[in-house]
Amino acid sequence: MNRDIILRAVDLHKRYGDVVALDGVSISVRKRETKVIIGPNGSGKTTLLKCLNMLIKPDKGRIWLGDEEITNPKINIYKVREKIGFVFQEFNLFHHLTVLKNVMIGLLKVKKMERDLAYEKAVNALSIVGIDRSLYDKYPAQLSSGQKQRVAIARALAMDPIIMLYDEPTSALDPQFANEVLQVIKDLAVKGVTSIIVTHHIDFALEVADEILVMYRGRVVESGAPKNLLSSPKYSITKNILMSGIALSNGLNHGFLE
Amino acid sequence: MGDLNAYITLLNYIPYILEGAKWSLVLTFGGLGIGFIIGLPVGVASVYGGRYTRLLLNIYIWIFRSTPLIVLLFLFYWGIFPTIGYKVSPLVTSILVLGLRSGAYQTEIFRGCIESIDEGQILAAYAIGMSSIQTFTNILIPQVLRISIPGWSNEYAGLLKDTAICFILGIQEVLTRAKIISMAIGIALLPYFIAGAILMILSYLGIKVLDIFYRRWSVPGLIKEI
Questions:
Q1: Are strands A19-30 and A5-16 parallel, antiparallel or unpaired?
Q2: pLDDT in tens, A104-151
Q3: Residue B1 reports pLDDT greater than 60
Q4: Do the domain assignments include residue B225?
Q5: Are β-strands A219-224 and A211-216 bridged in parallel, bridged antiparallel, or unpaired?
Q6: Alpha helix stretches (DSSP H) within chain B
Q7: Does B223 fall in a domain?
Q8: B127 contact residues in A (CB cutoff 8 A)
Q9: Residue B137 is assigned to a structural domain of this protein
Q10: pLDDT for B76 beyond 50
Q11: What is the DSSP string of B105-116?
Q12: A108 contacts in B (CB within 8 Å)?
């Protein structure tokens, strides 16, 4: 097996009752690679991402994190999740904890770190995502949506994950905050943080992705480097998504949709 | 003016009625304590438990919420305890019955609070590697306890008044003493008013204390600020 591969999933299947969410999806991510998953709503993007850290159990298929098979029922799944950073669409910050404590709690309770060290690490993670010290003692409800998502990224980052998964990180943001969050994600990707990003921001996807995967009806229908995908999309669905995404962002840039 | 003498005698007995407050509080806090010990885990189980667990718990809640307190007190004191061969004092019986009943009410308080915590936070806790128990103690419980205080304060006020019903087992709480004095000195209403006033003051103080904790522990956004 390629030593460089950090995360590998083979033939994942998942259904909810009659609805097929994943219909044989495989994906493998190399170290420092950024993969972006695009596709219409309901195509299985979020299900795939949540399967990758076992927040959702796939019905069938196997997943490896490094050499460890995490779909093995005997594995301690909590230990595995510690190594996978997950950023939710809805931030999901802990409402009763301050910004600083949101980032520290995993270090203290899961990694059992000394308080001073945890503090240091949390401060470091928060500065990476550009959260000012004046916000440390604020509660999530007192933050803007962009700040919330950046804190959520810091919370995941502080755990020293070997891969970051982002589930539509800008979909629940007020539009004016999308860029600050995308910038953070981009900076991390450039620094070599291995990432899988589910997004509807096509221009962002084209910019950061080493590879784009197009999902449709629970399958990866097409994948490739952004350039190739853009110049010669095989399927009309890819073309539609790419074109509508670009048209949308052009519209935004020209103020048509504001 | 035989009446006047009676009123003066009543004045002398106010400390005696007041002493009943001690027992009212013992019953209240005993009941609340047992109710909490029952209510929190049962509340959790009634949200996360399997079908049969929930069915069983719902039967418990149904019985204790729908049966009059007097019936429960009689049932336990004259029925259940003697039948299983235990001699249990009226005080302990009263505390147990109040506790079991309060447990049913508190289960509903905690159930509501647990259900109001959005599932996303639970997923987020799992995502950073927390186990179910760590998620429960670090994420769920601190929030549930905070938002349960108003419901709890209601439970305190209700339970405090219900302790008066324990007079039927002869507990020397406020109302029992008022009744004794009323009969002894031949004044019908006033002793009961005094008992009522004492309970009102206790109720006010307890609610006030809980309200202070509620404000102290309140977190922006977790509960609506008043």
A1: antiparallel
A2: 999 999 999 999 999 999 999 999 999 999 999 999 999 999 999 999
A3: no
A4: no
A5: antiparallel
A6: 2-48, 51-66, 69-74, 81-83, 90-116, 119-127, 132-135, 141-162, 174-185, 190-216
A7: no
A8: 53, 55, 81, 84-86, 88, 156
A9: yes
A10: yes
A11: HHHHHHHHHHHH
A12: none
Query: Which token pair is A251?
Result: 């519209």
Q: How many Cβ atoms sit within 10 Å of the Cβ of residue A186?
A: 17
Nearest to residue B134, comparing CAs of A158, A81, A121, A166? A81
A27: left (phi over 0), alpha (psi -120 to 50) or beta: beta
* Cβ atoms of A161 and A83 closer than 8 Å: yes
Indicate whether B9 belongs to any domain: yes
Superfamily name with CATH number, domain A5-253: P-loop containing nucleotide triphosphate hydrolases (3.40.50.300)
- Asked if A194 and A163 touch (Cβ cutoff 8 Å), the reply is yes
Specify the number of domains making up chain B.
1
Phi-psi region of A228 (alpha: psi -120 to 50; beta: other; left: phi over 0): alpha
A197 touches chain B (CB under 8 A): no
Q: What whole-number distance in Å separates Cα of residue A248 and Cα of residue A257?
A: 8
Subunit contact A109:B134, Cβ cutoff 8 A: yes
Q: Does A139 touch chain B (CB under 8 A)?
A: yes
- This prediction's pTM: 0.85
Tens digit of pLDDT for each residue in B193-212?
Answer: 888 898 899 999 999 999 99
In this complex, is the C-beta atom of B136 within 8 Å of any C-beta atom belonging to chain A?
A: no
For residue B19, the enclosing domain spans 2-216
Paired tokens of B73: 């007190």
- The token pair at B203 is 């109720």
CA of B119: which chain A residue's CA is closest?
A92
Give, rounded to a whole angstrom, the gap between the first and last alpha carbons of chain A: 49
Structural domain spans, chain A:
5-253
Written as six digits, the tokens of A258 are 């504001």
Give the CA distances from residue A158 to residues A84, A125, B4, B70, in Å, rounded to whole numbers and listed in that order: 11, 5, 78, 58
- The enclosing domain of B52 has a CATH number of 1.10.3720.10
Alpha-carbon gap, residue B167 to B28, rounded angstroms: 14
Smallest CA–CA distance, residue B127 to chain A, in Å, is 6
CB contact under 8 A, B127 and A109: no
Contacts for A212 with CB less than 8 Å, ≥ 6 apart? A35, A36, A37, A38, A205, A206, A223, A224, A225, A226, A229
